[in-house]
Amino acid sequence: MARDLRVVTCSAPVNIAVIKYWGKRDEVLILPVNSSLSVTLNQTQLRAITSVATSKSFTRDRMWLNGQEEDINHPRLQNALREIRKLARQEEGDHFHICSENNFPTAAGLASSAAGYACLVYSLSRLLQVDSELSAIARQGSGSACRSMYGGFVKWEKGDRPDGRDSIAVQVATETHWPEMHALILVVNAGKKIVSSTVGMETTVHTSQLLKYRSEHVVPHRMVQMEKAIKERNFEEFAKITMQDSNQFHAVCLDTDPPIFYLNDISKRIIQLITIYNSFDGNIKAAYTFDAGPNAVLYTLSSQVSQLLTLVSHFFPPDHTSESPFVIGLSQTTPVIDKKLAEQFQMEPIPGSLKYIIHTKVGGGPCQLNDPKQCLLNGDGLPNRELHHTSPM
Amino acid sequence: MARDLRVVTCSAPVNIAVIKYWGKRDEVLILPVNSSLSVTLNQTQLRAITSVATSKSFTRDRMWLNGQEEDINHPRLQNALREIRKLARQEEGDHFHICSENNFPTAAGLASSAAGYACLVYSLSRLLQVDSELSAIARQGSGSACRSMYGGFVKWEKGDRPDGRDSIAVQVATETHWPEMHALILVVNAGKKIVSSTVGMETTVHTSQLLKYRSEHVVPHRMVQMEKAIKERNFEEFAKITMQDSNQFHAVCLDTDPPIFYLNDISKRIIQLITIYNSFDGNIKAAYTFDAGPNAVLYTLSSQVSQLLTLVSHFFPPDHTSESPFVIGLSQTTPVIDKKLAEQFQMEPIPGSLKYIIHTKVCCCHVNNQPLPSPWMT
Questions:
Q1: Interface probe with B: pick from A19, A188, A206, A210, most Cβ of B within 10 Å
Q2: CA distances (Å), B289 to each of B20, B92, B214, B241, B328, in order?
Q3: Is A271 close to B259, i.e. CB distance below 8 A?
Q4: Please, what's the b/e burial string for A9-21 (b: 16 or more CB within 10 A of its CB; e: otherwise)?
Q5: DSSP secondary structure string, B227-245?
Q6: Which end of chain B, N or C, is less packed with Cβ atoms under 10 Å?
Q7: Which among B243, B244, B255 has CB closest to A247?
Q8: What phi and psi, each to the nearest 5 degrees, are found at residue A10?
């Protein structure tokens, strides 16, 4: 038992961009070619939990992620640790033990590194009692992690300084500003290995002429429009920009050499579904967005989410052999679809396209957990193997 | 029997763009937002044949296409007929009967309107004995038809005049300049109905910010580079630009609202195959290009076409239930693949992705009054 052990446990959210980050102007400091904006999701459904401990009895930094010990010398991890130590003016010799878990499977392809790095940085800041701008540190672990440092609606300002000190996250609106904003995460059955974001965006920067135009001429204007749409709670505007930016992101991926394909035939059918759904009553009711992977995120307001969930479950039902819950999170079941509505889509249901659907909503930023039962490290500062984290899966 | 009947029969080719036309600045005159460039394909494998006849006994214009009578009042058809009559200073009252056929099935999704309109315009010009710039007339029937007015390598200069008189096709190199240029057309099993080019490109013009940048800043430079690559017979350069332009065309389709998807999962696998193939020996050996539909066209030199055909047939074999010939045109069979080569791709064969493969090459120009052999038994 380490007598001077100090432990802090925190939780941090996932965020899903509605204006996409794709392309760096500085690979080391992780500075982007354009600004981006995201919605922070509720931590009840999706979160990273991290316990960080320090003790003079620790001989070296160590890290465990989802039960596995990780290589602490990973450059991005070292970046984050170094920067937080600088901020805390911490003497050499005080080592950390870090244990982190996500309540969603890594295989789900949900951007876990954003939540993970945000949680790491936040936890260390609480442990070392540092009160300071932290998003720039999270950014150096994983670009989009900076946006997970706040709840609600968050922008990552690209910044202009070479040293990156102005490339930080700024909260555009809090989680209570637009509580009707719900999200359905459609987790697709993983196919082949995909191109990693880090590699992909670097290739795009080097080979796509369209990316340059996007980052200099399209995104700055969209950022202004999107911020306005959020402040005014204008869902139609929010949705239009979201869908256009998702499509343009995938367009510049296609304009890459060799071309990068993240959308597959299931993604296209989801886009088709939402496009048709939005054409009814001339009223935009849902927005799709796709990241660097096959999963879809659908944004909609609470008044529409039940109908949207019904539609998605109808046209993308589970495989009949599957026994695990199909819809998890805020909803657990879906009403049966109205046949007349279904006929208007002229689409056939394709079972087995989706693994499951997570229903969540906009949520808050990182927070400290004071319940000792949620601590992931034991009295010796080692992973607490008896802990079974609460998971909606 | 019409005693004063005069008939002319002509044949015209298909062309496949390597720098793509997508987007009009004038919907009526069919003037494009950027120039484009294509390879004209050999008519032995793919052609439109048109017979045009005139006689004072004809009471009205009539047209038949692939055995079906068509609506002669279609605006684009009327455009082409009106323009050719103007050129010929033809008196009112002389009506035409037009009969056209393609030697490839329409269901193949191969751009038949380009060959068709080119053939129509050319046939009428022979019938009316008009010697004049004809590509601008073909253009008004169907944009890319202007490029089918010449053999070899052809560019469609976008032009700047509002009246479109400078928006014409120009031959960049003849069909004998680079006879090693072969093409494999991979005809994909047709899926759902796709967005028509006419509708699609109009939506892209109205909604894509990336298209404007493409047409003003990217294509002009690529046209210069491509013309140079062709003149120098630089296959590596030709291939790089071709693949990049195909991808950028599909990128602006994706940047459209609502987004347009012409590439499907089979298209992606074909791209993957060619990308891997080109990575061997650091030597670009093939280029893919995809139009507004699922079919792929692979360009390669004659020295590589056999190996390429072998690879495509191996990874995209026919459905085992299919009885019709799988490879047609210049090749009829494919050698068995070398197992070591196949393993390097780390891909599984997926049967039934392709209906068939047409092996052809860069072509010759129009042929008068001669029936040509047809690979199709329709």
A1: A210
A2: 10, 44, 17, 10, 20
A3: yes
A4: bbbbbbbbbbbbb
A5: HHHHHTT-HHHHHHHHHHH
A6: N
A7: B255
A8: -135, 165
Tell me which residue in A210, A244, A265 faces B251 most closely, judged by beta carbons. A210
Q: Which helix (H) or strand (E) holds B270?
A: helix B265-279
CA distance A258 to A204: 9
Candidates B105, B131, B107, B102; CA nearest to B117 is: B102
State both tokens at A28. Answer: 């080391």
Grouping H, G, I as helix, E, B as strand and the rest as coil, residue A37 is strand
* Rounded Cα–Cα distance for residues B6 and B51 (Å): 10
Sheet with B68-70: list strands edge to edge.
Answer: B68-70, B62-65, B96-102, B47-54, B6-13, B367-368
Q: Does A218 touch chain B (CB under 8 A)?
A: yes
A261 contact residues in B (CB cutoff 8 A): 268
Residue A392 clears pLDDT 50, i.e. is over it: no
Backbone phi, psi, residue B12, to 5°: -140, 155
Q: Which residue has the tokens 């008068």?
A: B368
- Taken in order B220, B226, B231, B232, is the CA torsion positive or negative? positive
Per-residue model confidence (pLDDT) at position B369 = 43
The rounded distance, in Å, linking the Cα atoms of A56 and A42 is: 36
B contact residues 257-276, partner A, Cβ 8 Å cutoff: 257-259, 261, 264-265, 268, 271, 275
Is the minimum CB–CB distance between B251 and chain A shorter than 8 Å? Answer: yes
Note whether B247 contacts A259, CB cutoff 8 Å: yes
Distance separating alpha carbons of residues B338 and B163, to the nearest angstrom: 57
Indicate whether B307 pLDDT > 70. yes
Interface of A with B in 339-378 (CB under 8 A): none
Scored b (16 or more CB within 10 A) or e, A207-220 reads bbbbbebbbeebbe
Mean pLDDT of chain A: 92
CA A98 to chain CA centroid, nearest Å: 21
Q: Nearest-CA distance from A353 to chain B in Å?
A: 15
* Distance separating alpha carbons of residues A154 and A146, to the nearest angstrom: 9
Q: Identify which of A39, A8, A36, A38 has the alpha carbon closest to the alpha carbon of residue A22.
A: A36
Candidates B218, B244, B245, B254: best to mutate against A (most CBs of A within 10 A) is: B254
Contact B214 A217 (CB under 8 A): no
Residues B277/B308, Cβ–Cβ less than 8 Å: yes
Mean pLDDT of A289-298: 93
Interface probe for B, chosen from A213, A255, A273, A278 (most Cβ of B below 10 Å), is: A255
- Residues of chain A contacting B240 with CB distance shorter than 8 Å: 257
Helix (H) and strand (E) counts in chain B? 10, 17
Instruction: State pLDDT tens for residues A77-112.
Output: 998 899 999 988 876 668 999 999 998 876 666 777
Strands A95-102 and A48-55: antiparallel
ipTM entry = 0.91
Query: Which chain B residues touch A254 with a CB distance below 8 Å?
Result: 247-248, 250-251, 254
- Nearest C-alpha in A relative to B192: A347
DSSP state letters, A311-376 = HHHHHSPPPTT--S-SEEES----PPPPHHHHHTT-----TTSEEEEEEEEB----EEE--GGG-S
